TrEMBL record:
The keyword Transmembrane applies. It is a multi-pass membrane protein. It is found in: Cell membrane. This is Nucleobase:cation symporter-2 family protein. PROSITE patterns: XANTH_URACIL_PERMASE. InterPro entries: NCS2, UacT-like, Xan_ur_permease. The chain crosses the membrane at residues 12-33, 45-65, 72-93, 99-117, 124-144, 164-181, 188-213, 233-257, 312-333, 339-359, 371-391, 397-420. Belongs to the nucleobase:cation symporter-2 (NCS2) (TC 2.A.40) family. Keywords: Cell membrane, Membrane, Transmembrane, Transmembrane helix, Transport.
Amino acid sequence: MERNVKLSGGKIFSLGLQHVLAMYAGAILVPLLVGRALNLTGEQLSYLVAIDLLTCGIATLLQVWKNKYLGIGLPVMLGSSFVAITPMIGIGSQYGLNAIYGGIIAAGLVVLVFAGLFGKIIKLFPPVVTGTVVTVIGLSLIPTGIKNMAGGASNPDFGSLPNFLLSFGVLALILIINRFLTGFMRSLAVLIGIIAGTAAAALMGKVSFVSVAEASWFHLPQFFAFGLPEFRIAPILTMMIVCVVIIVESTGVFLALGRVCNQQLAPLDLTRGYRSEGTAIVLGGLFNAFPYNTFAQNVGLVELSRVKTRNVIAVAACILIVLGLVPKIAALATIIPPAVLGGATVVLFGMVVASGIRMMTEVDFKDQRNLMIVACSVSLGVGATVVPELFSGLPSSLRIIVSDGTITGSLSAIFLNLFFHLSSRLRSADSITVSSTNTDTSTVPTGEQA
């Protein structure tokens, strides 16, 4: 599974930092969006970002540390799930902040208890489904990367020439490093691109250090920072749906990373992975953080860097924990301009798409049914990403499931595979039974048939 190269401590740290920077924007975006939507104070928002980073680190360690009960044992990074943003805002607006965390804790416990049952869903993920799911995940992420390349959707200078130069400069540097350098330096292509891009942005006057100056030096986590959780039926059911959706998404990422690392995953491996995610979700509720899932962009980074050792991810998790405890250091990562981050992440998102396409090389596309599964699932997944208001007329409980392109495409692939292949298997079984019956009857003398 791991690359046969002995890495020094400095190299492992650099590779771990690269993983942190690749997922950092996504990790802090969820608390910022939820906190601002619920009108949290600046102090509460700072806590939310810091505790989110800390819990991301703990959740990642739970997945990397494989034992009898917990851990997928793959080089995966966990971050706060984007699927939970809209439901959390809805619950918080209607029932209050504490009802959010009651729902998260209850949903996490459900994942823990039923992890063994969820582990059996690997049968629903043949190559035509896994390849489609991973491809849709990558395609759903690409619009975010492209918007960041232009400077960020809400940025007043969106699409300006400086943003264009920064993003494509970072992209060009990453490509040049991959073309002309080898070994460790090529593994750090994304990190080098981000650092160089941020330095160039600073010279252009596009970097502000205000957030670093205002951030505190130390921060201690605490249970129920916003008060005791409230357990209400509607929020609990909503968060349970969210967690099931997270499991579907994480399953596709697990299987993709298993292929990258040449590791065949068994139902027991998935069960341990789901237990770790369930534990992380419960911790998110206890610390007033978020539900967590596996980040696909880091799978692209594993593919790009070709370093598959779990030590790198363990170091990345420890970096996140330190960032959560020392907000001033964490704030340094917030100075990276969106255009720089977009130039780097668009490569990673593209690598996710490429991984999905490679997984589908095992699929028999002479079979029209497989073509229909891929065609419909990719179209619906990308469509829901590009036109998120497509399902705006549905009840809120259903919108949670289908408003995210990744989930729409994933569920489409699973159900279409069952529709086409399960029904054909049942017909085959019926024809065998009928054939067997006719054969037996033909051997009976005519007089006895009468």
